Here is the input.
Amino acid sequence: MTALTEIDSTHLRRAVELAGQALALGDRPFGAVAVGRDGAVLAEGVNAVNTTGDVTTHAELVAITVATAAGKAEALRGATVYASGEPCPMCAAAMVWARVGRIVFGAAAAEFGQILPGGPAFTLTCAELVASATVPVEVSGPHLGEEALAVFRAAAQR
Here is the structure.
Protein backbone atom coordinates (compact mmCIF):
# COMPACT_ATOMS: atom_id res chain seq x y z
CA MET A 1 0.00 0.00 0.00
CA THR A 2 1.37 3.36 -0.97
CA ALA A 3 1.60 6.20 1.52
CA LEU A 4 -0.83 9.06 1.12
CA THR A 5 0.41 12.38 -0.17
CA GLU A 6 -0.95 15.60 1.25
CA ILE A 7 -3.14 15.96 -1.86
CA ASP A 8 -4.43 12.40 -1.42
CA SER A 9 -5.28 13.11 2.21
CA THR A 10 -7.16 16.28 1.27
CA HIS A 11 -9.33 14.51 -1.33
CA LEU A 12 -9.89 11.49 0.89
CA ARG A 13 -11.00 13.73 3.75
CA ARG A 14 -13.41 15.43 1.32
CA ALA A 15 -14.85 11.99 0.48
CA VAL A 16 -15.38 11.36 4.20
CA GLU A 17 -17.03 14.78 4.52
CA LEU A 18 -19.35 13.87 1.64
CA ALA A 19 -20.17 10.63 3.46
CA GLY A 20 -21.37 12.74 6.37
CA GLN A 21 -23.58 14.70 3.96
CA ALA A 22 -25.10 11.45 2.68
CA LEU A 23 -25.82 10.42 6.26
CA ALA A 24 -27.48 13.77 6.98
CA LEU A 25 -29.75 13.20 3.96
CA GLY A 26 -30.81 9.78 5.28
CA ASP A 27 -28.51 7.60 3.22
CA ARG A 28 -25.70 5.27 4.16
CA PRO A 29 -22.48 7.24 4.80
CA PHE A 30 -20.45 6.99 1.62
CA GLY A 31 -18.83 9.75 -0.40
CA ALA A 32 -16.49 9.86 -3.39
CA VAL A 33 -14.37 12.37 -5.28
CA ALA A 34 -13.05 11.80 -8.82
CA VAL A 35 -9.86 13.74 -9.53
CA GLY A 36 -8.27 13.98 -12.97
CA ARG A 37 -4.62 13.42 -13.77
CA ASP A 38 -4.17 17.20 -13.79
CA GLY A 39 -5.40 17.42 -10.18
CA ALA A 40 -8.75 19.00 -11.03
CA VAL A 41 -11.85 17.63 -9.31
CA LEU A 42 -13.98 16.06 -12.03
CA ALA A 43 -17.00 15.20 -9.88
CA GLU A 44 -18.19 14.30 -6.42
CA GLY A 45 -20.80 11.80 -5.34
CA VAL A 46 -22.73 10.74 -2.28
CA ASN A 47 -24.64 7.56 -1.65
CA ALA A 48 -28.27 8.19 -2.60
CA VAL A 49 -29.78 4.69 -2.44
CA ASN A 50 -32.37 5.54 0.22
CA THR A 51 -33.32 8.95 -1.13
CA THR A 52 -33.61 7.79 -4.77
CA GLY A 53 -34.68 4.18 -4.32
CA ASP A 54 -32.04 3.27 -6.92
CA VAL A 55 -29.65 0.62 -5.58
CA THR A 56 -26.97 1.68 -8.08
CA THR A 57 -26.58 5.20 -6.71
CA HIS A 58 -23.48 4.42 -4.70
CA ALA A 59 -21.15 7.38 -4.20
CA GLU A 60 -18.48 6.17 -6.65
CA LEU A 61 -21.05 5.48 -9.38
CA VAL A 62 -22.67 8.86 -8.81
CA ALA A 63 -19.28 10.58 -9.21
CA ILE A 64 -18.55 8.63 -12.43
CA THR A 65 -22.04 9.38 -13.78
CA VAL A 66 -21.77 13.10 -12.96
CA ALA A 67 -18.34 13.33 -14.60
CA THR A 68 -19.56 11.50 -17.69
CA ALA A 69 -22.71 13.64 -17.96
CA ALA A 70 -20.48 16.74 -17.80
CA GLY A 71 -18.48 15.49 -20.80
CA LYS A 72 -15.51 14.36 -18.69
CA ALA A 73 -15.53 10.63 -19.50
CA GLU A 74 -12.12 10.87 -21.18
CA ALA A 75 -10.72 12.71 -18.15
CA LEU A 76 -11.71 9.73 -15.97
CA ARG A 77 -9.06 7.65 -17.78
CA GLY A 78 -6.12 7.55 -15.41
CA ALA A 79 -7.99 9.60 -12.79
CA THR A 80 -8.05 8.83 -9.08
CA VAL A 81 -11.30 8.09 -7.28
CA TYR A 82 -11.20 8.75 -3.55
CA ALA A 83 -13.85 6.85 -1.59
CA SER A 84 -14.75 7.19 2.07
CA GLY A 85 -15.20 3.43 2.33
CA GLU A 86 -13.79 0.51 0.38
CA PRO A 87 -15.69 0.30 -2.91
CA CYS A 88 -18.02 -2.66 -3.38
CA PRO A 89 -17.57 -5.01 -6.36
CA MET A 90 -20.16 -3.07 -8.42
CA CYS A 91 -18.34 0.22 -7.91
CA ALA A 92 -14.87 -1.29 -8.33
CA ALA A 93 -15.94 -2.86 -11.64
CA ALA A 94 -17.42 0.45 -12.81
CA MET A 95 -14.14 2.19 -12.06
CA VAL A 96 -12.29 -0.45 -14.08
CA TRP A 97 -14.72 0.13 -16.98
CA ALA A 98 -14.18 3.90 -16.65
CA ARG A 99 -10.42 3.18 -16.79
CA VAL A 100 -9.53 5.13 -13.66
CA GLY A 101 -5.89 4.74 -12.70
CA ARG A 102 -6.20 4.70 -8.93
CA ILE A 103 -8.72 3.94 -6.24
CA VAL A 104 -7.89 5.32 -2.80
CA PHE A 105 -10.22 4.51 0.08
CA GLY A 106 -10.61 5.32 3.76
CA ALA A 107 -12.33 2.61 5.78
CA ALA A 108 -12.04 -1.08 4.87
CA ALA A 109 -15.30 -2.93 4.22
CA ALA A 110 -14.37 -5.53 6.85
CA GLU A 111 -14.17 -2.73 9.44
CA PHE A 112 -17.19 -0.61 8.53
CA GLY A 113 -19.29 -3.73 7.96
CA GLN A 114 -18.93 -4.59 11.63
CA ILE A 115 -19.98 -1.09 12.65
CA LEU A 116 -22.76 -0.59 10.10
CA PRO A 117 -24.51 -3.87 9.40
CA GLY A 118 -27.59 -4.28 7.27
CA GLY A 119 -26.33 -4.17 3.72
CA PRO A 120 -25.14 -7.06 1.59
CA ALA A 121 -21.53 -7.95 2.18
CA PHE A 122 -18.93 -9.49 -0.10
CA THR A 123 -15.84 -11.50 0.73
CA LEU A 124 -14.17 -10.20 -2.45
CA THR A 125 -12.18 -7.05 -1.70
CA CYS A 126 -11.84 -4.08 -4.01
CA ALA A 127 -8.20 -4.94 -4.63
CA GLU A 128 -9.05 -8.57 -5.45
CA LEU A 129 -11.72 -7.58 -7.94
CA VAL A 130 -9.51 -4.99 -9.61
CA ALA A 131 -6.60 -7.45 -9.77
CA SER A 132 -8.80 -9.82 -11.77
CA ALA A 133 -9.30 -7.21 -14.51
CA THR A 134 -7.19 -6.83 -17.64
CA VAL A 135 -6.81 -3.09 -17.00
CA PRO A 136 -4.23 -1.98 -14.44
CA VAL A 137 -5.74 0.03 -11.58
CA GLU A 138 -3.84 0.80 -8.39
CA VAL A 139 -5.82 0.26 -5.18
CA SER A 140 -4.65 1.93 -1.98
CA GLY A 141 -6.35 1.62 1.37
CA PRO A 142 -7.47 1.53 4.04
CA HIS A 143 -6.31 4.98 5.11
CA LEU A 144 -7.14 7.52 7.84
CA GLY A 145 -7.97 4.86 10.45
CA GLU A 146 -10.47 6.04 13.05
CA GLU A 147 -10.98 9.30 11.17
CA ALA A 148 -12.47 7.34 8.25
CA LEU A 149 -14.53 5.11 10.55
CA ALA A 150 -16.06 7.99 12.52
CA VAL A 151 -18.87 8.60 10.02
CA PHE A 152 -19.83 4.91 10.17
CA ARG A 153 -19.87 5.05 13.97
CA ALA A 154 -22.14 8.11 13.75
CA ALA A 155 -24.50 6.22 11.42
CA ALA A 156 -24.63 3.26 13.81
CA GLN A 157 -25.74 5.55 16.64
CA ARG A 158 -28.81 6.74 14.71
